[in-house]
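Reopening: UDP-N-acetylmuramoylalanine--D-glutamate ligase still failing for me.
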Amino acid sequence: MDLLDKNILVVGMAKSGVAVARFAREAGARVTVCDAKSREELGEKAAELEQAGVRVVAGSYPRVSRQEYDLVVPSPGVPLTVPPVAEAMAEGIPVFSEIELASRYINQPLVAITGTNGKTTTTSLIGAMTRQAGLKPCVAGNIGQPLIAETRGDYGVYVVEVSSFQAETTVEFRPRVAVILNVTPDHLDRHGTMENYAAAKAKILANQQPEDFAVLNYDDEWVRAMAAQTRARVIFFSRTHRLEEGVCCEEGQVVVKSGGQTTVICPASEIAIPGAHNLENALAAVGAGWALGIEAADLARTLKTFPGVPHRLEFVAEIQGVRYINDSKGTNPDAAIKALEAYEQPIVLIAGGKNKGSDFGLFARKIKEKCRALVLVGQAAPAIEAAAIEAGVSPIYRASTFAEAVHLAAAAARPGDVVLLSPACASWDMFNNYEERGELFKQLVHSLRR
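Support: Ran it again with your exact input. Result attached.
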């Protein structure tokens, strides 16, 4: 795709928006980047982009027409209803996500991973498998590094985490291997319905061809149904079924069944990352690795040694017999339920943040089953508390600050307990992102030693 002398509008000046603006400018495009934040709020980023020759519009949006722009690239967090994006769509101007634009410049095989929960762990695990196999991977996308910033690298394969926000504005995006982990209620404040949300996830399958692979969760009804939507070869994975073809567990072993042959990968008990949900992530990663031709020994070695990712069931410390676990990436009820299910010990749970349109009923019932106490903080605290009271949860503590939440949890815990931060909500009411929330949690936990 030739961007020379094209007029590009980038909407949103977060990490991916800045990366797109720089890439397009270096490719010879005339680039405008806009953001609803003021110049003061944007800080040095605005000045740095202007020095690179990018026009910056802060605190407002420019009008969009065919005469002004050839392409509009919204950042993932920007709703498609904001004026410049909506105007572009009405005018018939192409609207691309950052990963769509980046994929136009990638010739190497691309593995795309999406799903409500487990994306980052599975993406990192597939990255580790491809690295173990000597495939020189680039791990990028929603995991934190914009894909567009890595298109000129010397890589053998791209392993890309894809959010529903990124997928919904893809056009020709075609992964060699597409992995869809699960679809549970999340981001309904943006997508409106589960059908719309599932359709956004399924877009990574839209352009696949018979020589490609779709790795799909047989245990998830939404995902299993997507097998009918792809022309790719389907590899199912299942934690709870013994499949005739695909990746599953038999007699305690992770196995791949393909073409009438069964290949044992390793005992499920030897997978390093804990929890039933991580077994699902591991099975999905094996499916992707198998599709790429990675040897069973390399898959097994990675499963046995992969330590997990920061902010997802991350062990922080044990203090006075209490284990502190950082699961700040648990940003919806389903993810938090899976975190609760990973532990047999009594749990003191810290939850709350910005609600993304979630229902907390099932989450509250799981809290009742697994938790000694519940500490709530943030914007969603009243909604979670109402659901928890209805489920019979007690005691419930309310904190006005995040630091207070950690101290209340520490006071409620007994030796042998787990204090678990798994908020079931986004972080945006108090933090810039879940990483910032998780890092503060770790700092506060370590301060308890003093």
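The two ends are 57 Å apart (CA to CA). If you still see a failure, please send the error message rather than a screenshot.
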